[in-house]
Amino acid sequence: MGLTQMQFAKALSCPVNTLRMWDSGLRKTPDPIMKATFGLVAKHRSQRQLLPIPTLAAELGVHKSTVESAIRRGRLPAQFSTRSVFGRHIRLVARGDGESFRHSVYRHRNVAPICEPLPQVPMDYATLLVRLRKRLGLTQTGLAQRIGAASKGDLSMGIAKTHPFASALEKSNRTLRPHKQPPSC
Fold it and tell me: pLDDT (tens digit, 9 = 90+) per residue, 103-150?
């Protein structure tokens, strides 16, 4: 099984010294411990058993193509059998690898980290931005360059009469008020 005495003792829920006494033959191993040991060995064999993809998919309750995709993407290790069907080698996956894939990767989408909500855009944002631009003595082009917008047109899209784009708001706030930076993820 590849376990150290400490790991094996922990799996059997017994002290290491007691396990060593049983292992050396100085004391007889109790029957319940022997049954638990046989159970651990059987479970270990079951986890290492190589299964064809359709069999593993049926056991895990996932579609066969999901398992195949996970193998192609490197999320699930597979081995090739020496046998082949119609000139293609049979891919085999250990049951334990399939179960760990099911619990750790399957249906766990790449969820973006939870961020603080974007600041609310005031209804008079366009007016405030124009006043600020005039107070700083900037042209629309100068303001666009300062906040990193590609052109004056990009800036005008941000200060349209409707709500500006969140990125334009964030850029302008960050650039025009460097002492007050918005929270970021």
Answer: 776 666 655 555 666 677 788 888 888 888 888 888 888 887 887 765
End-to-end CA distance of the chain: 44
Calculated CA dihedral for residues 42, 47, 50, 53, nearest 10 degrees: 130
Please report, as a single letter, which amino acid is at residue 161: K
CA distances, 88 to each of 54, 68, 85 (Å): 15, 14, 5
Strand partners, 52: 92
CATH number of 125-176: 1.10.260
Give residue limits of the domains in the chain.
5-47, 49-104, 125-176
Please answer whether residues 99 and 60 qualify as being in contact, where contact means their C-beta atoms are separated by less than 8 angstroms.
Answer: yes
Q: Letter for the amino acid at 20?
A: R
Q: 138, 146 in Cβ contact below 8 A? A: yes
- Number of continuous H segments (helices) and E segments (strands) in the chain: 10, 3
State the residue for tokens 């629309």.
140
61: its two tokens: 């309750």
The CATH class for the domain spanning 49-104 reads mainly alpha
Closest to 119 (Cα-Cα) out of 162, 153, 170, 51: 170
